[in-house]
């Protein structure tokens, strides 16, 4: 993905993610990755982690060759939902990001890796049982590994900032549920995702 270079000063900053797990920007242009991460923190501190999830979903959508227009529309909708209510600076940044992928994403779509989502696997730190279940996702659902990775990152961020395990598990369950809409039918992966969701629901109900 390509972001327009617009810097928005603000006094509120999100806790910075390791760039290894930052999904926005073009993999062929490291500067765009750093720039998009910085601009997102400055312009949209509150939905910073949600923006990263939008980018992961978009990259996985490209990698599955679901159609550039479809993927870009879903990306723009995701950013719009995440940025809503977060001020003018965030709105302008979201619009710029959406414009960039719609008008300059063709090359990235053409070069996307069919059927295999890359990235470094992230292991959940705050719940060993959930971490074990996620290992099954990474193994059996390679086409959405970036998205699952980012769901896991957002869970840990939720736990470290709120300590509300029930709410964080519920958010993680929702994150996994929404991957169904972006995944082509895959019996093996679909079954694993469903099993993991059932485990999460049991843990949530036991808290």
What does this structure look like?
By secondary structure, the protein is mainly α. The chain folds into 2 domains: 93 residues, no CATH class; 79 residues, no CATH class. It is built from 9 helices and no strands. α3 packs antiparallel against α4, α6 packs antiparallel against α7 and α8 runs antiparallel to α9. The longest helix is centred in the last third of the chain and has 20 residues. The protein is globular, with a radius of gyration of 16 Å. The chain starts with 29 loop residues before the first helix and ends with a helix. The N terminus is likely disordered. This is Phospholipase A(2). InterPro entries: PLA2-like, PLA2_histidine, PLipase_A2_dom_sf. One of its GO terms (cellular component) is extracellular region.
List strands and helices in order, with pairings.
Layout: H1 30-43, H2 48-63, H3 68-83, H4 87-104, H5 106-111, H6 128-140, H7 145-162, H8 165-179, H9 187-206
Distance between the termini: 39 Å
The best one-word shape is globular
Strand content: under 5%
**Oligomer designation:** single chain
| Number of separate domains | 2
- Overall pLDDT level: 87
Q: State the major sheet.
A: none
Low-confidence stretches: 1-12
Structural class: mainly alpha
């Amino acid at each position: 993905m390509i972001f327009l270079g617009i810097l928005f000063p603000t006094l509120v900053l999100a806790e910075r993610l390791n760039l290894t797990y930052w999904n926005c920007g073009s993999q062929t242009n490291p500067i765009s990755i750093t720039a998009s991460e910085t601009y997102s923190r400055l312009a949209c501190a509150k939905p910073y982690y949600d923006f990263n999830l939008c980018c992961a979903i978009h990259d996985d959508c490209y990698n599955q060759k679901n159609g550039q227009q479809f993927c870009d529309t879903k990306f723009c909708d995701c950013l719009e939902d995440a940025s809503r209510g977060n001020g003018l600076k965030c709105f302008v940044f979201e619009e710029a990001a959406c414009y960039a992928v719609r008008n300059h994403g063709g090359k990235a779509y053409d070069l996307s890796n069919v059927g295999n989502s890359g990235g470094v696997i992230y292991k959940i730190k705050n719940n060993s049982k959930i971490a074990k279940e996620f290992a099954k996702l990474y193994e059996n659902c390679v086409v959405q590994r970036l998205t699952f990775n980012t769901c896991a990152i957002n869970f840990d961020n939720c736990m470290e900032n709120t300590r509300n395990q029930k709410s964080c598990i519920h958010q993680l369950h929702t994150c996994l549920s929404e991957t169904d809409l972006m995944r082509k039918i895959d019996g093996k992966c679909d079954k694993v995702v469903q099993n993991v969701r059932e485990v999460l629901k049991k843990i949530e109900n036991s808290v």
